[in-house]
Amino acid sequence: MKRILLLTVLAAAIAPAAFPQNMFRGNPAHTGVYDTEGPRQLKGVKWAFQTGGPVVSSPTVVDGVAYVGSDDKQLHAVDVATGKEKWKFATEGIVRSTPAVVAGLVYFGSYDGVFYAVDAASGQLKWKFATPGERKFEAKGLHGYTPRTQTIPDFWDLYLSSPAAADGVVYFGSGDGNCYALDAATGQLKWKFETKGVVHSSPALAEGTVFFGSWDTYLYAVDAKTGQEKWKFKTGEDPVNYNQTGIQSSPAIVDGVVYFGCRDFNVYAVDAATGQEKWKYKITWVNASAAVVDGSVYFGTSIPAFFIALDARTGKERFKFDAHTPVFSSPAIAGGLAYFGSFNGSLYAVDLKDGKLAWEFQTESAKKNASAYLKPDGGLNFATVFTSPFFEDMYHTSVKLFSLGSIVSSPVVDHGVVYVGSADGNLYALE
Fold it and tell me: How many domains are there within the chain?
């Protein structure tokens, strides 16, 4: 009996610690790994909850409730057993921040420039913190659009920074160029850290340090208590001179290494203590955040559109899966599968061992409208999607792609069910 007890204690001591799955990418380190099995075969849609606008925000599932923002300017709380709404909270702007749920409060930001804390059970406001205001990344002649002297807000800057919370403090980035640390109970400002660009990268926490990227092309490491800079890492400049540089991806930290993607066409691995580069992998825009588990890094790319696995130590490619259209959705890893969405309205489940497709879910909008904007092989039909060099075409393009029910929301996995938002306005529960 003593031997059995000793073995039990030893097993508990060496078992990996389970993270609370209560914020963007599942945990404060943003590893994208979920301590549950996901569906290995798709049975179908358990339920679909319709919001009043596209769902770019990613859901957070805690204690049987899914919390998700929508372009209808509201945060929704949905019962995961029934798909019925428990409550909704209205803001003055679209909600593209993924909520964090800690100690009975739900934290999230809105395009109205306000950061909110609401009661998780009732949806009642607890406190709010006003920033100077939100904005998208913008630049002259962005992406080669005309007129070249026009300052153009970037549609592809899709997300707001999503909060991370730990030890009584909540952290988030803002379009005003700052990363903020607030008292989680009261909303009082503890510190703010200024960058030279929009901060829509979501801060990740590890070993008393906050890591986040900015559109000013730097990844920052800041002391979580004081807000003092520990180091900053410079990424590359725009390789085609269309003012596209900056960090849209959010970092993930595993075993003392920070992994993140950048618009300079690289994925980086940087030492978390020193900010020194360990390796980089060149491909194309990487706007999705990486998932890291069992010695591999997983992420999606833009054009060309792939889902890629790299060796976490060396940066060497393990496999490359053709996702057909840009992948802004960050992967969720559960039970040996990676789940992620694409602009074509598909959610893919890919086996981590060999990079092969396990199953695919398509929105009804994708089935209905695919022929208008996709080629027979599933790739983008550039002739019908990108029809003009004038900058307003970027926004016409967004309407076309969103008509496919694009999945740019990042999925989460809980008790064998995948939850993900779609541009068709639905939060889906897939089993």
Answer: 1
